[in-house]
User: Fold this.
Amino acid sequence: MKQQGPKSLSPMEYAMKYLTAKDRTVSEMQTYLDAKEFGEADVDVTVARLMDLGLLDDARYAVRFVETRLAAKPVSRRHLWEQLKGHGLSEEHINAALDEADADFEENNARVIAEKFFRQFHALEPEKRRERVLSRLLGRGFSYDVSRKAYEQALNTEEEWSES
Assistant:
């Protein structure tokens, strides 16, 4: 273990400080402690202890991440999958967390985004507006079919508003 003078912290103390800001994945914690130049054995013991205490739980992290992201900003299942993978989570934890999400969340999220951009691009010619809305949806990871359906729903919603 690297000594940093009389006020050096143990791996557990560093880990607890790191967890104070927000939840972390096992991979993130290992990377953090490795960067502090603790030995592999110290890192493994610390991570195992944090898991035993319930302070590191990749399954819980994945579920909370999905819930938080969906509440904050509608995104596609693929986009969420890529974000979770970037946090070092296993495919098993990622798929389980995404399976817990509402079965219709992909289409609902696409519809919300389509309506937002449909209103934002209201001054454009219809074909240009369609291209821009679809481009935004595809850029957020939605499939073409889901994007097209969401665009059509936004178009129908606007027609209903104008008839009222």
About this structure: The domain at 58-100 is CATH 1.10.10 (Arc Repressor Mutant, subunit A). Residues 25 and 61 are 7 Å apart (CA to CA).
